From TrEMBL, chains A, B:
This is SAM-dependent methyltransferase. One of its GO terms (biological process) is methylation. It holds the Pfam family rRNA_methylase. Keywords: Methyltransferase, Transferase.
Length: 188, 188
């Protein structure tokens, strides 16, 4: 058994947390892999809110969701994740959220996530997160602008009150090409 | 399900790696928890080599091993782990090793592990490690001298060739009292 990649470990952590019927967030739909993973866990009685600023990502994901019979429980939203609050009721709880920070693989590398909007969205997810719930951030930072976002996110999560949240960092530290690492924030 | 502590996650990683009949190393016997964990995994046909410089730690662990019927497969060695090579045949393979860096809880806080001897022992374990095997280091560093050892170990493992080894770091980053973190080195 090999050590899991950051991306794979994010799924390992979320799987036992998410129950059928839950509301969860895919803050960066991208290639839709996480959206489909989440849709399978929440089931037909649950709800995935998936955000992306690129229509092409949403269209491709919508097609995959239809093919896998999971379109019903997913709301794909063509808006920045910093506006997440507009799509949740004030007292609505979520059990999980996933972020993939960086750019959409195989797409325009100048369209990237940015610290300010990422932190707004993270803050919103944490305020809706139920006890035991997890927000997972897979941080790609090898691209231009990636280092700044990585630093800002790390600074933010390191300051989360340890009585309210556990903040785990998981990543490989001997690789030449900066592989993504995982930050997992769990509400106690 | 809560996020696992570094110590607990070291066991989660090692459990599927270690088979009955394997030879494994407990480089820092201490309170014996890891020794007993390893003894259970290798079984009567396997072998645990357990090192400690404090006789009291070995005596206490010997007693626990007898009580749990696992004394047969454990060799407790009153020697520094930097001399590990004296106890392994040159071509002997190990599937795992555990280090707890720092001091023995509840004991003399001035008897601590040190960078130089830790790195010698680590080097020896890696040279005997079979493919897929894991060396787990649980790094306590809140005590005097801990920061220097932590830095030396991190520098060393970050330089391991990524084609030969994967080096994972796992730890909590928002806690005031420096909790231990885990380094897991797996041979590819």
């Amino acid at each position: 058994m090999n050590l899991e990649s950051a991306l794979s470990y994010s799924h390992t952590l979320l799987k036992p947390i998410i129950q059928a019927g839950d509301t969860v967030i895919d803050a960066t739909v991208g290639n839709g892999h996480d959206t489909i993973f989440l849709a399978g866990l929440v089931g037909h009685s649950g709800q995935v809110l998936g955000f992306d600023v690129q229509q092409v990502a949403l269209d491709e994901t919508a097609l995959q969701l239809q093919l896998t019979g999971q379109a019903h429980q997913v709301q794909l939203i063509h808006d920045g994740h910093q506006n997440l609050d507009h799509y949740l009721a004030p007292d609505q709880q979520i059990s999980a959220a996933i972020f993939n920070l960086g750019y959409l693989p195989g797409s325009d590398k100048t369209i990237i996530t940015h610290a300010q909007t990422t932190l707004s969205a993270l803050d919103c997810c944490l305020s809706h997160l139920r006890r035991g719930g997890i927000v997972a951030l897979v941080v790609y930072y090898g691209h231009e602008g990636g280092e700044a976002e990585k630093t800002a996110v790390l600074n933010e999560v390191q300051q989360l009150d340890q009585h309210e949240f556990q903040v785990l960092q998981y990543g490989f530290i001997n690789q030449v090409h900066q592989p993504p690492f995982l930050i997992a924030v769990q509400r106690r």
